[in-house]
Amino acid sequence: MFTGIVEATGRIKEITHNGTNSTFWVESPLSPEFKIDQSVSHSGVCLTVEEVKDGMHRVTAISETLEKTNLNNWVSNSIVNIERCLPFNGRLDGHFVQGHVDTTGTCVAKTDKQGSWEFDIEFPREFAALVIEKGSISLNGISLTVFNVKENRFTVAIIPYTYTHTDICDVKTGSVVNLEFDILGKYIQRHISLNPALKP
Question: Where in the numbering of this chain does the Lumazine-binding domain appear (predicted)?
Answer without folding.
Answer: 1-95, 96-192
